[in-house]
Amino acid sequence: MSKRAFRYFAIAAMLVTALFFPRLVLASLITEIEPNNSAAAAQNIPNSSFTSDFVAIITDSTIFPHVSIDGKGGAGSTNFDFYRFTTAGSGIILDIDNNGTVTPTNPVVDTEIAIWNSTGLLIGENDNMTAPVDPGSTSLANSFLRLDGLPAGTYTVAVCQSPDCAFSNGFGISGTPLPSGVSYLLHISLIPEPSALILLGAGLVGIGIRRHLKKR
Ligand SMILES: [Ca+2]
Ligand SMILES: [Ca+2]
Ligand SMILES: [Ca+2]
Ligand SMILES: [Ca+2]
Questions:
Q1: CA diameter of the chain
Q2: According to the model, what pLDDT value does residue 15 have?
Q3: What is the pLDDT of residues 126-161, one digit of tens each?
Q4: Residue 182: its pLDDT value, please?
Q5: What DSSP assignment string belongs to 142-187?
Q6: 13 CA to centre of ligand 4 in angstroms
Q7: Fewer CB near the terminus (10 Å): N or C of the chain?
């Protein structure tokens, strides 16, 4: 193959990949770092990793800053996955997606998730999302949780294998971790304060008016 032909081939391959495997072009993808098996060892997700880039499988991705974590199951009876992040906003969305490949060794990821505030108070948990299946998932067994009206602060999230997980105050968790061979995407979205959304809307309207006036 000539150099030029190879270049065209490489570009075509990239376009096909971007078209059919959108998970590979997630705007902000973080790889899970083990061990993260307890709240004390939670993986810190820095604010700098949240973006507002468009991602089709994330709710209102251009409005809500979001990050995606490429997580994996593993060996061990206490191998839960904990993540921690800080928000100045008023709401949080936690969205588990199958990580693209559903195979015999990576079947539907039947997760359970939980979230605690900075004092260890359990403020939410979910096993299965309610229908319809949200974008990025192929099964209702993927977890999805939206919480609104939260104070700014630091929050801790855990991922566990359904159906025998139990969560409790004080970052308590028991049950079965996700097994080896399973991979998942955890999208975390931060919903801004309503006042910030109004400002954002006003800004967009302003840009629209400026463009309109320029055209005239
Ligand atoms: Ca893991
Ligand atoms: Ca872990
Ligand atoms: Ca999803
Ligand atoms: Ca589930």
A1: 67
A2: 45
A3: 999 999 999 988 889 999 999 999 999 999 999 999
A4: 87
A5: S-EEEEESPPSEEEEEEEEEEEEEEEETTTEEEEEPPPTT-EEEEE
A6: 35
A7: C
Task: Decide which of 112 and 195 is more confident.
Answer: 112
Q: Which secondary structure element, helix H or strand E, spans residue 86, and what is its range?
A: strand 81-87
CA of 106 to the centre of ligand 1 (A): 14
Question: pLDDT band for position 108 (50/70/90)?
Answer: confident
Tokens 């820095």 — which residue?
46
Q: Going by C-beta distance under 8 Å and a sequence separation of 6 or more, which residues neighbour residue 116?
A: 39, 122, 123, 155, 156, 169, 171
Q: In angstroms, what is the span from residue 84 Cα to ligand 1's centroid?
A: 14
Q: In sequence order, which residues have a C-beta less than 8 Å from that of residue 77 and are 6 or more positions away?
A: 176, 177
Structural tokens at position 156 = 């801790």
Q: What domains, with CATH codes, occur in the chain?
A: 27-215 (2.60.120.380)
**Ligand closest to CA 132:** 3
Q: What are phi and psi of 100, to 5 degrees?
A: 80, -50
What distance in angstroms lies between residue 184's CA and the mean position of ligand 3's atoms?
10
Distance 68 CA to ligand 1 centre (A): 14
CA distance 110 to 102: 12
Give the number of residues written for the chain.
216
